[in-house]
Specification:
The protein is mostly beta strands. 7% of the residues lie in helices and 50% in strands. It has 2 domains: 118 residues, Sandwich (Jelly Rolls), CATH 2.60.120.230; 88 residues, no CATH class. The chain is built from 2 helices and 16 strands. Strands 2, 10, 12, 13 and 15 form a 5-stranded antiparallel beta sheet that branches. A hairpin with a 5-residue loop joins strand 4 and strand 5. The radius of gyration is 19 Å and the shape is globular.
Length: 256
Amino acid sequence: MPREASKRIRRGFPGLSLPRYEIDVAKGLVVGRTATRNFGHNLACGATEETIWGLSSLYVYLTSAEQLKVSSSVPGTDIPASTGAWTVIIYGLDANYRIISETVTLESPGPVTTINSFLRVCDVQVMTAGTGGKNAGNLSVKNNANTNTLGYIPIGENESHMAFCTVPAGQRFIMLARQGGELAAKVSHILFYIREYGSVWQLKRDIIVKDDHFYVRMAMPWVIPAMADIEVRATATAGAGIVFGGFAGFFEENKW
């Protein structure tokens, strides 16, 4: 590749073809841009709106940053020297919407309290485990009062699958694709919401699906500002729907 073309990739030159550009972003070759995809599943979606994540409920966001509690539903099997999960890493945002993370060593009976205070939990991953290679129990990250689940890893999945995120301060999110589906022959409504900072939730797109799925590559990407919340929700006629959904794109520093 010519030297000048290489420089343009690293600087995020807008003249590059979009497919090639997306690949370079995903590889981490474009300065100031970070690729991401957020998807989840709800295996028992009700007839009223629920978030598409590991639980059958509507997600409740924190209004101020606080230390979090981390625990397993089967504490003795998710601790160091066990066959299950040993450590997890929490990715999130602090009180100023800046990116933070923390690695937590699981304990029995738990919960373990984080050192850092989080305003948002964006992802939770198992980092080390015993011979089983995965979490033996459901892993939960909750608020400091241990009453509200903010991150959740179902048994054996090693990562939270949550179809929501919050745009960090100083960045914007470029949404390039969205997807969803339903697998239990229930007419289901997949809803894409955005809540800009200081505002309210707004429904930006919805699709009705039954025993089918969809993938939309967006001809005109959505540009979502800093500190906005993005969430995919669903309803299932008569309840008991098996739904999944999510979105993909990249974060971009506002200076570009």
